[in-house]
Design brief:
This protein is about 20% helix and about 20% strand. The chain has a 5-stranded mixed sheet with strand order 2-1-5-3-4, with no helix packed on it. Strand 3 and strand 4 form a beta hairpin.
Length: about 90
């Protein structure tokens, strides 16, 4: 199962757990599974239309992805939800 690294700001939803192994073949599946196990996770990661919030970046296997919830993951993937950084 893919491993999800829970960002510090969302650890209160997981009772402090930092990493979670969760079912899913895409980022969308992972978010749905996270929300089923830890209610409120989806609303923190996604907008009302189901897309990843603009202030959240998703990294799969060490690479920031641009395909959002459609991004495929393998059973050995590591998924990170990170606060997006802006520069100037």
């Amino acid at each position: 199962m893919p491993t999800v690294w829970v960002p510090t700001l969302l650890k209160k939803l997981t009772n402090g757990i930092q990493t979670v192994e969760i079912e899913g073949q895409s980022v969308r599946d992972i978010i749905e599974s996270l929300d089923a196990t830890y209610p409120g996770m989806k609303s923190r990661l996604c907008d009302e239309d189901g897309t990843i919030r603009t202030e959240i970046a998703v990294a799969v296997d060490g690479q920031i992805v641009t395909t959002g919830i459609r991004t495929r993951v393998s059973e050995y993937s590591e998924v990170h939800f990170l606060p997006a950084l802006s520069g100037g």
